[in-house]
Design goal:
single chain, alpha/beta, Rossmann fold, seven-stranded parallel sheet, two-stranded parallel sheet, 9 helices, 54% helix, globular, disordered C terminus
């Protein structure tokens, strides 16, 4: 995609984090945006800022991406506002921290509904409009945890591995068309996903430390957004974001069994340290 000028982008999870940063970056690059989020207060804040700082068209759409009926109605609402769709960013995501044996199935339903079905709904219902574009992109947010499995995140990893596999399959199906697919694999990004996540009792002591770590050490969401837009400009189908994602991907390719054993040992060590401090 050579230029974002006057393109129309739909961004889910646009109320904060990577979604908000992507909306801001797309507007700076000349695109019009349809902001989608379940939290209307956050959406209003983003919309007000973008309309104040630019002359681009910005629409606001409150939607739970796991709600099939709501997502089925969304494309026509975006078309009514903007007349076209060129870019779909399936960014909305949530997390649950729990060992699998403690993972409540209701929490797993929530996780799969947002992280996986949200991507499926976005692609399924927006694809007809994207096919009408002369140059379109679907951007699906997977994760570092879509490349390696880690303890305490079995549900999250399952959804992000699924997004990765789905994106690769969809990209193959759409090869030769005007719609490309980008699978994005961020590591630690400064977003609200940990703060807004669900933690079972045995993992609750980790939330505060994880929030503090992300605030101090994670990559700014704005930098992540620029990397994603750069990958789109180069026509990429996959992009690894953050140093730890590149390292984990390389180790997984070279030492698939040893790297997984090391992750298991590291997880047990962190669990013992957390138990000692709680």
């Amino acid at each position: 995609m050579d230029s974002f000028r006057d393109r129309v982008a739909v961004v889910t999870g646009a109320g904060s984090g990577i979604g908000r940063a992507l909306a801001e970056s797309l507007v700076r690059a000349g695109a019009h945006v349809a902001l989608v989020d379940v939290n209307d207060e956050r959406l209003r804040d983003v919309q007000d800022q973008l309309e104040r700082d630019s002359d681009r068209r910005v629409s606001r759409h409150v939607a739970d991406v796991s709600d099939r009926a709501r997502m089925a109605a969304l494309p026509q609402q975006v078309l009514d506002e903007h007349g076209r769709v060129d870019i779909l960013v399936n960014n909305a995501g949530v997390t649950v921290a729990a060992e699998f044996g403690e993972l409540d199935l209701a929490d797993l339903d929530w996780l799969v509904g947002v992280n996986f079905w949200g991507v499926i709904h976005g692609c399924k219902f927006f694809l007809p409009a994207l096919r009408e574009s002369d140059d379109a992109y679907i951007v699906n947010l997977s994760s570092l945890f879509g490349l390696v499995g880690v303890p305490g995140q079995s549900g999250y990893c399952a959804t992000k591995f699924a997004v990765r596999g789905f994106s690769e399959s969809l990209a193959a199906e759409l090869a030769g068309t005007r719609v490309r697919v980008l699978s994005v694999h961020p590591g630690g990004i400064a977003t609200n996903i940990v703060r807004d996540g669900r933690f079972v009792a045995s993992h609750a002591h980790r939330q505060g430390r994880m929030v503090s770590f992300f605030e101090r050490h994670a990559m700014p969401a704005e930098r992540c957004a620029e990397i994603i837009l750069g990958a789109m400009r180069r026509g990429r189908s996959r992009v690894l974001v953050t140093r730890e994602t590149h390292v984990a991907d390389a180790l997984k390719r070279i030492f698939p069994t040893l790297s997984q054993a090391a992750i298991a040992r590291a997880g047990k060590l962190l669990a013992r340290r957390g138990a000692n401090r709680s």
